[in-house]
Structure to design on (365 residues):
């Protein structure tokens, strides 16, 4: 791969190399340090012949999945039901589309929103969770439960048994430390539960509220992905993270050379991480020197691990990465007055710029 290779080409080459390494060892290799399944699974959905089947993780008896059961799983507190693969999820969408009763008009909407989330907590897909967590051997298909069973030497096991083992494998990873993992996952679970509950209503007020929750969910999910210790080097190839090499360290700020591509913005909050701890700072400015881009960042608070992370990286005794401060949505939280019991206030008037008013825009509600 040449020095002029694009980030897309670098990522493709890295992916190919890792899958070939996994094939050479005849076993999946660690990719992400965080679990592929973020919450403890309470049940699983799979196809038995052509029938959608639900089985509790704590029960031995399988049952045919009904729309009522699926709706309960989507809205229940603390439920995380693992869907075997994307094909099985497509069958769930068919179930929702085929329901004639108005009682289930929101089921398809809930399913489509769940599928669009960057890593649903309530209805995760097992093969995608495994792909996030591991590099699969080259020559096997990542979307296939059977191929994942082969990758881990589970050939010959009955499907429910293989699924339970794969769920356990997808659930392993780093959840402790000061990386904000457990707090972010709890926030994601709460947000998705509220999302699924709100989807039974229609109207612009609810749609705005749902959109705000989607933004907050995406921010938390992207924040976890950005600081995942196993993915920092990988994300440096596409710019989601930036590797820093500290140079001049002063009391109030420090200068560091940065990796390319570089996507962080001046004046924005960023988070520093060494894969163990987090520190918050601000990117003051960017400078060019000797044909290399340098960043000037505020010195993090002395109360945290930030200064120590910087000094270790400067001495060559550790790594340091910067990621965008994306754990929380930047937008102001919206209140849905339907749920607070109050009336939604009617807009009684609006301020319109003069040039827009002259063009004929209404100036009253």
């Amino acid at each position: 791969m040449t020095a002029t290779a694009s980030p897309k080409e670098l990522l493709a080459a890295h992916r190919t190399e890792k899958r070939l390494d996994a094939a050479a060892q005849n076993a999946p290799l660690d990719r992400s340090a965080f679990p592929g399944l973020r919450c403890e699974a309470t049940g699983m959905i799979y196809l038995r012949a052509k029938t959608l089947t639900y089985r509790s993780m704590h029960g031995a008896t399988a049952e045919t999945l009904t729309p009522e059961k699926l709706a309960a799983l989507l809205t229940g507190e603390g439920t995380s039901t693992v869907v075997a693969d994307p094909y099985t999820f497509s069958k769930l969408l068919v179930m929702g589309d085929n329901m004639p009763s108005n009682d289930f008009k929101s089921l398809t909407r809930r399913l489509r929103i769940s599928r669009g989330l960057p890593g649903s907590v309530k209805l995760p897909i097992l093969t995608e969770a495994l792909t996030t967590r591991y590099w699969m051997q080259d020559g096997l298909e990542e979307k296939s439960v059977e191929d994942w069973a082969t990758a881990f030497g589970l050939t010959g096991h009955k499907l429910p048994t293989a699924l339970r083992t794969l769920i356990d494998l997808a659930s392993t990873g780093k959840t402790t430390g000061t990386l904000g993992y457990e707090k972010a996952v709890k926030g994601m679970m709460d947000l998705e539960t509220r999302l699924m509950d709100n989807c039974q209503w229609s109207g612009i007020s609810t749609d705005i509220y749902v959109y705000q929750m989607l933004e907050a969910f995406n921010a938390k999910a992207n924040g976890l992905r950005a600081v995942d210790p196993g993915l920092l080097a990988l994300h440096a190839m596409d710019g989601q993270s930036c590797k820093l090499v500290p140079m001049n360290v002063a009391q109030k700020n420090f200068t560091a050379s940065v990796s390319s591509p570089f996507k962080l913005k001046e004046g924005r909050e960023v988070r520093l991480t060494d894969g163990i701890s987090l520190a918050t700072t601000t990117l003051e400015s960017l400078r060019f020197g000797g044909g290399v881009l340098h960043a000037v960042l505020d010195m993090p608070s002395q109360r945290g691990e930030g200064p120590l992370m910087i000094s270790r990286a400067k001495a060559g005794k550790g790594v340091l990465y910067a990621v965008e401060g994306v754990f929380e949505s930047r937008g102001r939280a919206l209140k849905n007055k339907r749920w607070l019991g109050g009336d939604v206030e009617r807009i009684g008037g609006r301020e319109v710029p003069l040039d827009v008013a002259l063009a004929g825009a209404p100036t009253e509600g």
Remarks:
- Residues 32 and 230 are 4 Å apart (CA to CA).
- Residues 330-350 have pLDDT under 50 and may be disordered.
